[in-house]
Amino acid sequence: MKLFLDTASVTEIRTMWELGILDGVTTNPSLVAKEGRRFEEVLREICAVGVPSVSAEVVGTAADQMIVEGRHLRGIHPSIYVKCPMTPDGLKATKVLAAEGTRVNMTLVFSANQALLAAKVGAAYVSPFIGRLDDQSEDGMELVREIVTIYRNYHVKTEILVASVRHPVHVLEAAKLGADIATMPFAVMDKLVHHPLTDIGLARFLKDWEKVPKA
Ligand code: G3P
Questions:
Q1: Ligand 1, atom 10: closest residue by C-alpha
Q2: Which of 78, 112, 155, 165 has the most other CB atoms within 10 Å of its CB?
Q3: 214 catalytic, yes or no?
Q4: Terminal CA-to-CA distance of the chain, rounded, Å?
Q5: Which residue among 2, 34, 83, 120 is the active-site one?
Q6: Alpha-carbon distances of 152 from 125, 141, 173, rounded to whole Å
Q7: How far apart are the CA of 164 and the centre of ligand 1, in A?
């Protein structure tokens, strides 16, 4: 499973990129706003890190606006995937952009039927928001399970990008279901790296090593 960071922080992206575990980045308007910098400037810096997949979201709500924005975003860097919302206009825009060769990430997906539609219009990624469903007392991971089943039934090429990930168990469950990608905040990815027994074990090895005769 590919691991993406859900952030617009170049520092966070560089940190995980240097570990060699990062496959991509997803941004959204809320994450970009947190950086307090111009969108395109941040986007160019993220792409310059070298991450092969960087999702950038349109903010227009009409299909023609999304198409214009999508074409512009795609032109910024070859790594860019254009994020369009799962709305009627988002579907129309995705159909046009995908036909032109733009890779579209359909976002704000909350049902398996919406995921079916995203595939139909040629989205490269579909982004079910599992944490926000959990927040509503619905089972976000059940949605991933449904999408995996449906996409397998029809040999759909659209990749399932599990979004709104809140903790490491979400990542683990997504991987067990065979999702293609999980995107997560820096804090969650950092928790994947660490285990207290690793730290305790290393400290013990290094302490014992001091007892080994050195010459
Ligand atoms: O980037 C989209 C998604 O991952 C947002 O997550 O935590 O705001 O529900 P969250």
A1: 164
A2: 165
A3: no
A4: 46
A5: 83
A6: 15, 17, 18
A7: 4
